[in-house]
Design brief:
The chain has 312 residues and is mostly helical. It has twelve helices and four strands, in the order αααααβαααβαααβαβ. Helix 3 packs across helix 5 and helix 6 packs across helix 8.
């Protein structure tokens, strides 16, 4: 469109980072994870542990959404603050920050084209494509440990970035060796699995469902108004997931922090509806619609080529 979707004067306050809001959300999500973890430490029986695991997984999911903000530089007012938060989250889940950020910014640049590194959910019809699609939905976080720590850097990093990444992985190996040695010797491995690893594993399907919902019913090689999906939801879900269910709005204005996306959407909604953009009012319907639909079938080769790291 030749005209702006929102007046610059209206956009300006929506670009502002609110540190108090960020710290509140970090506290809520970390509190859910840690609080449920303490409950797991004393709970007796799975009937009590299952709801606690769900709460802990919800905390993990919320922190992942904040990590997404760090990739964009939208979390704190300094790039260093975003990097520190992102690196801490990466250490918790075992997936390096640099390839995650590189992949996601490339996804924004090449969204829904053959150069989109998140095009695991699109390609020629095949059993392998369907298997990959559902595997990523169900086990995306565990699979990401291999993909982002090893495969993605080898495919997309230059030699300087690879050497830097190798040092990061060496640090991870040292940290986890010390941690797991201490847990095994102290008899705390079982508790660590319940408090730390299981919540991350349970967060994976939530993150996978959100990932496919974010680009459900999009047009391959389409214009910017038809290559991401917004799904309005309850105030609680929008808060916990930092407004990123307004995903089309996020792609249109990626420097707007997630918690300002609902306000941004109120400005954009008339134009989006007029253009027939993928805007929905039921997040669950979009998630399960995307799950039933499976991967996007396209006629062209969507293998990812030509992406090289350029940012420091």
């Amino acid at each position: 469109m030749s005209t702006p979707l929102i007046d610059p004067a209206a956009l300006r306050p929506l670009l502002q980072v609110r540190p108090a809001r960020v710290w509140t959300m970090i506290g809520v999500h970390a509190g859910c994870w840690l609080g449920a973890g303490l409950g797991l430490a004393v709970a007796d029986g799975w009937l009590l542990k299952i709801p606690l695991l769900v709460i802990a997984a919800s905390g993990v999911m919320g922190l992942i959404q904040l990590d997404h903000e760090a990739w964009h530089g939208n979390l704190f007012r300094s790039r260093r603050g975003d990097r520190v938060f992102g690196e801490c989250m990466s250490l918790l889940v075992g997936i390096a920050f640099a390839p995650l950020r590189h992949d996601h910014l490339a996804h924004h640049r090449y969204n829904r084209t053959a150069r989109d590194p998140d095009a695991y959910n699109a390609g020629r019809r095949s059993f392998g494509l369907s298997l990959l699609f559902y595997a990523v939905v169900l086990l995306g976080l565990p699979l990401s440990v291999i993909y982002f720590n090893i495969l993605y850097p080898l495919q997309h990093f230059d030699n300087t970035a690879l050497r830097r990444h190798a040092r990061v992985l060496a640090g991870y190996a040292f940290f986890y060796t010390l941690l797991f040695t201490a847990l095994v010797r102290g008899g705390g491995m079982g508790l660590a699995c319940e408090v730390w690893l299981l919540p991350i594993l349970l967060a994976s399907p939530l993150n996978g469902l959100k990932s496919i919902a974010d680009h459900h019913h999009n047009i391959w090689n389409g214009d910017r108004l038809h290559t991401a999906t917004t799904a309005r939801s309850t105030g609680l879900v929008t808060f916990l997931w930092n407004g990123l269910n307004y995903h089309l709005d996020h792609h249109l204005y990626p420097r707007v922090p997630g918690y300002n996306l609902p306000a941004l959407h109120r400005y954009l909604r008339p134009a989006l509806l007029a253009q027939g953009s993928p805007v929905y009012d039921s997040y669950l319907a979009v998630m399960f619609g995307a799950l039933r639909a499976g991967p996007v079938i396209v006629d062209e080769d969507v293998s990812i080529v030509g992406l090289r790291r350029k940012d420091p």
